[in-house]
Specification:
6-stranded mixed beta sheet; Rossmann fold; 199 residues; alpha/beta; 39% helix; globular
Amino acid sequence: MKPIKIYLVRHGEVVNHKNIIYGYLPMRLSEKGKAQAKKAGMFLRKKNISVIFSSPQKRTQETAKIIKKAISKKSPKIIIDRNLRESGFGQFMKGMTAEQVAKKYPKIWQTYWRKPATVKAGESLVQQAKRFLFAINKAVKKYPGQNLVFVSHRDPILAALLKISKRSFNDLHQVKHLCDKGSILEVNVIGRRFVNKSF
């Protein structure tokens, strides 16, 4: 059985002069971010992509549009899926710098960096993985046998991959370097089984 190829793309770099935690804020791509998205699109150009799914955030939609244009002006189509949205963890931190968060919420911040699976505030990595994989499963059923792209954010992408690989969510920061802005991670779908091809 030929595997279905699923490509998980993190959005490109955003304009963030104040270096804040932006969460759901409507951040636009920087010129570097646009170049990262175009590079991702050029890589995906020969991967026979049928549909691009995107998080509703501005930066992911912008990334998805650039990828689509790099692949083809007519296809694939873009579908917005809320289940690919940014992490719901720490939305109360948005607009703050990491230094400000560490000072105002030291316990939560330290826990996130040391044992992210145990963070009690906001949306957990378990919840992120669950909704992300739900989105993939739904898409695979709707578009059987077709290669798909999902444009999203670092923590939801990695949470899903850790779940697929049956690794601890506490390994989040051990693999985060693999999901830099504009990066592409691959999952193969063989029957009902997901295979993480990235780590």
